[in-house]
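TA notes, week 10

Several of you asked for a full example with nothing omitted. So below is the full record: structure tokens for the whole chain, then the designed sequence directly under it. When grading your own attempts, check the secondary structure regions first.
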């Protein structure tokens, strides 16, 4: 099940972090925690509204509902925060080390470590816990999982809430890295996240990691050949080609159902 409102959850996470560091506590780690909390709440609300309420209906109905939530959250942010671009305070922007001609800041190191912790934690959660086993079972066949005693509603709610929490966290880091945020900032990261997942394999966490790295490498190499204005074009072309010719991605497994 695809949630196209994740980009806007990313955006709300960014604004939550901005509110925290601007008015409450100028600490990026507190802002990250707040982004996680708001993202979890929004993911929970969207699952209950768009997926549980429409369970049993064709998947296109839930998909359209998440698109509606995407527009709703974007317009809500316009009303609450205004349409103008805001500046995020600098955190850990000083250089940590130099490799060749590239300067790596402390913020980039924090982002890399955060990504590594999240990915390792997700792998352990999915494959080493009862809830992770439930998520895998429900993803294969939710009716059979329900007959085996798994609380399908709870499992799906946790999965969507967790995805929202991660989107909120990434929103804070993204706004800090680019030092800018606005109500329209979530579209491109949301679509590119979906592209990376399709590229690597939407049913595989390692595939999503591989897809993200390959997408970033291809985008940056392509701007050496063509104009940087074609960067997004390249990403969406990859999405279209994989959806047409290899919808399971590089590491994704074909469903047996």
């Amino acid at each position: 099940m695809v949630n196209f409102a994740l980009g806007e959850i990313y955006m709300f996470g960014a604004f939550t972090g901005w509110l925290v560091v601007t008015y409450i506590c100028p600490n990026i780690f507190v802002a990250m925690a707040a982004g996680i909390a708001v993202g979890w709440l929004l993911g929970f609300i969207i699952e209950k509204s768009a997926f549980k309420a429409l369970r049993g209906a064709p998947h296109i109905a839930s998909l359209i509902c998440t698109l509606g939530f995407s527009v709703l959250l974007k317009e809500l942010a316009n009303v609450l925060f205004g349409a103008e671009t805001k500046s995020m305070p600098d955190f850990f922007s000083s250089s940590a080390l130099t490799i060749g001609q590239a300067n790596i800041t402390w913020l980039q190191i924090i982002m890399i470590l955060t990504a590594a912790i999240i990915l390792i934690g997700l792998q352990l959660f999915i494959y080493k816990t009862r809830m992770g086993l439930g998520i895998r079972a429900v993803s294969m066949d939710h009716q059979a999982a329900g007959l085996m005693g798994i609380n399908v509603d709870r499992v799906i709610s946790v999965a969507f809430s967790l995805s929202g929490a991660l989107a909120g966290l990434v929103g804070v880091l993204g706004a800090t890295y680019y030092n800018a945020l606005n109500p329209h900032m979530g579209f491109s990261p949301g679509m590119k996240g979906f592209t990376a997942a399709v590229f690597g394999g939407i049913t595989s966490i390692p595939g999503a990691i591989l897809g993200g790295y390959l997408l970033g490498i291809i985008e940056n190499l392509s701007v050496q050949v063509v104009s940087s204005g074609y960067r997004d074009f390249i990403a969406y072309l990859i999405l279209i080609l994989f959806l047409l010719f290899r919808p399971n991605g590089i590491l994704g497994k074909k469903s047996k159902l």
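The radius of gyration is 19 Å. Use that as a sanity check on your answer.
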